[in-house]
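Treating backbone geometry as a discrete language has practical consequences that deserve illustration. Part of our work consisted of pairing the sequence of a single chain with a tokenised description of its backbone. We regard such an encoding as a compact summary of how the chain folds. The amino acid sequence and the backbone structure tokens for this protein are reproduced below.
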Amino acid sequence: MRFITQLPKLCHLCGLTIERSLGHNLWCHHCQPLFNFHQHRCQQCGLTFESSASICGECLKTPPPWDKMVCLGDYQHPLSHFIKRIKNNKQPSMVKPLAQMLSRKIDHPAPLLISVPMLFHHEFLRGFNLSEMMANDIANQFSGSECAHHIFRKHRHTRVQKNLNREERLHNVRQAFSLKRAPSLKHVAIIDDVVTTGATVRHLSELLLEVGVEKIDIYCLCRTPKSSYG
């Protein structure tokens, strides 16, 4: 009888062996502190801020059209390294462990998870929609949640948001997305891989509110720090 020895999983950052106790095959115990997943964040905009309050002053003054944002961490190295590997190097196997980590931060999951669509030819070239994969993996963690992947339609390519001012960002996304059909439930979550300025999820939230959705959450892997886009 031949025995097949399984080779150890190696950290994608430093190359050392990944301990099984971590429960994933992305990074090792030595690199774990680099991610700083426990930063204090505003529960509405997802940005970090130095206070014991749950909501930052900006959101208290001008609340966003959604109720809560849950993210794994900032869009900075080393977490951004894995997002780029997934998108640019077409490594979707990395999505599931990241989505599972995100799921553990969600206290009261929405019963309906809505993914942000891609243009058809972009999804065809990449081979997958990252937001759709995230939604599926998150829904699998919660018995009361299901996915809806055809609520929105994307019409055209959007310019890079971080290079635009606020008015240009809003115009940019409002010309790109529309609502195909109203969700069947009143509490939903929009699933996106990275929230940069928030203009995209703001517009999508407004479309949902117009058709009677009452509570909207945002689940994303990364939130771009405000200092990165001004």
In short: The chain has seven helices and seven strands. The chain has one domain: 44-228.
